[in-house]
Amino acid sequence: MEKRFDEGFDNILIYHYDEEYQNGKRLDADTMVTDIGRKALSLNGKWHFCPDTFCSVIRTRWFDETRYNRNGLPLPYDYDFEKWEEITVPGVWNNQKREYALYEGAGLYFRTFSLEDLRKEKLIQKHGGRLFLRIGAANYETRIWLNKHYLGRHLGGFTPFCADVTDYLSEENRLLIFVDNTRRGEQIPSVHYDWFNYGGIFREVELFETPDVYIQNTFIQLSRQTAGKIEYRIRVRASAGPNKTNHIPVQIEIPKLGIVYKDDCCITQDLPADTLEAAGTIDADEEKIEKWSPDNPVLYQVIVRTMGSHSDIVEEEIGFRRIETKGQHILLNGQEVFLKGMCVHEESLQSLRCVTKQEIENMIMQVKEMGCNFLRLTHYPHSEWVARIADRLGIMLLEEIPVYWALEFENPNTYRDACNQLSELIIRDRNRASVILWSVGNENPDSDERYHFMKNLVKTARKLDPSRLIIASCLIDVDQKRIKDRLIEALDVVGINEYYGWYLKDFEVLEEILGNYHEDKPIIITETGADAVSGYFSENAEIYSEELQARIYEKQFNTLLKYPFIKGITPWVLYDYASMRRMSSLQNGYNIKGIIGKDRIYKKKAYYVVKKVYG
Ligand code: GCU
Question: What is the pLDDT of residue 241?
Fold first, then answer.
């Protein structure tokens, strides 16, 4: 084998050049640590960036930064981290330089930070402690090096992940992050989907510290099963050697309810190494709890702390509410509720997929003003700020993972990835009262492999969060004119996408299908809609006109609202959004089924139909 540099081999002649990076350290739900209520140093801002289409960072070991040989003679090199152009993080790369507009591939991010920055923020403890790097989301595959040390690999384009950087810190630190948004068959989503594949680190990046023994995550919600109980699970990690212990006292405090509850986190068999957990219920006088609802979004301060000399504290605002089904009904706090919703993609003209908190707040105010009490966040986990803001402003949410259309359901790596994305989403948002439903997938072709794959996802969701309802957008058998999906038995609520009036013209068939529904479970119409070009009016309601879209909406509502088991509707879709499979001259790269245009301002006629029904 050729020896290219006198410091050692590079990887250009090795086919499986990245095995170590492929199968080595995983950054996943198990390494994720809650940052909520923690002090953090933001690493948002300008980073150096360069496309790395050939993965040279590994192939030719750029991460090593070997510039001189043993004798101090300069070696040739192909990278210039500090001199590369700057790009903003968080942000997708597509709108940061014209050449990147349609770029799908890998890019390398670089920046430095110093211990001094951390000291200024009082983020370095005198008595040890851990420091974590957290990335809110980067699409799709991410690999991280700090000071030439490989920290690990994360898969999935929409959920947060953490890397423990403590052991690799130096006075001046060099952080190198490889992000690759190449579509691949085994990924979630796979190669074909109806939204735009934006690339880059598009959610916040930060460093935060914890004590050596730290709270990894918490789950605190009103029990769905038993009245008068608050259910909790506190997971603690004790990774540092000298602090190894098999029990750690914790305390949960809800000052406004007068609750101060103590328990012990213990090691149990099914937990990963160094992990301790306390789980149980706290008696709570439900009369005293002001329940969270869209009309009354009350939040309580909840403080969880480990007891002992260097105690860890996680403090957050949590709403208490109960969501359940009874036969074909959905009950919120014991009262029947109808979910008046819209589907929405995470995208704006200004920020593309990196929507701002202000844009999220505006969106929620806009749909509330339309009469909505519910949003379906399609088809992947949106920013964590949506649920945080929804908790505060009062709107219920369905959150979903991109188990969308055809996937490699038979591939165990694909399942592992899906399961991890679901776990990261649920652990991230399971204390948010606004989230009432987890969706495990959308319009997936029926097969035995798909059935087992998705049933196992349902199991995982229930294990991580027994307090919420599970849904998937299921299948209709158009020939047999009925809803027919084996997955229904595993779900609490049946999601149905149907486009009668648009893709399928024979509207009467919809009535037949609904007439054939006999399951004792509620249905949410998770999609229905039609295209309309903003500002195209036609008295005869020609195809693509606002009038036709509005008529289809009217007909849909008139039909759907007759069926008592339909307990919610989320038409497709709130705003027009970019999609590379929508290339007619009227669409121009956009799915134009929005009832509001891509500017998030222009209201099509169908908007007023929805407002009339919901308002
Ligand atoms: C599908 C799918 C959406 C899609 C929509 C459409 O049912 O779930 O993601 O975009 O139809 O055709 O516009």
Answer: 53
Instruction: Answer whether 399's CB lies under 8 Å from 382's CB.
Output: yes
Tokens found for residue 502: 């648009």
Contact 291, 298 (CB under 8 A): yes
Q: What is the spatial distance between Cα 143 and Cα 10, in angstroms, rounded to a whole number?
A: 18
Mutate to test the pocket of ligand 1, among 497, 527, 592 (most ligand atoms within 8 A of CB): 527
Q: DSSP 3-state assignment of 223?
A: coil
pTM: 0.97
Give distance in angstroms: CA of 285 to centre of ligand 1: 45
pLDDT at residue 271, as a whole number: 87
CA-derived radius of gyration, the chain: 25
Asked if 207 and 43 count as a contact pair (C-beta separation under 8 A), the reply is yes
Tokens standing for 227?
């009245």
Q: How far is the CA of 208 from the centre of ligand 1 (A)?
A: 39
Calculate how far, in angstroms, residue 194's C-alpha sits from the geometric centre of ligand 1. Answer: 7
Pocket of ligand 1 (CB under 6 A): 194, 379, 442-443, 497, 527, 572, 591, 593
B/e letters for 536-548, b = 16+ CB within 10 Å, e = fewer, are beeeeeeebbbbb
* Ligand 1 atom at shortest distance from the alpha carbon of 378: 9
- Asked whether the beta carbons of 302 and 319 are under 8 A apart, the reply is no
What is residue 315's predicted lDDT score, i.e. its pLDDT?
Answer: 97
Cα torsion at 558, 563, 565, 571 (round to 10°)? -20
Please tell me the total number of residues recorded for the chain in this structure: 615
Report which of 594, 591, 590 is spatially closest to residue 606, judged by C-alpha positions.
594
Candidates 117, 191, 146; CA nearest to 27 is 146
Q: How many A from CA of 216 to the centre of ligand 1?
A: 37
Cis previous bond, 404, omega within 30: no
Instruction: Tell me the β-bridge partners of 500.
Output: 504
Burial annotation 272-282 (CB, 10 A radius, 16+ → b, else e): eebbbbbeeeb
Out of 398, 404, 497, mutate this one to test ligand 1's pocket (max ligand atoms within 8 Å of CB): namely: 497
Residues of the chain with pLDDT under 50: 1-2
Give the ligand 1 atom nearest the CA of 473.
8
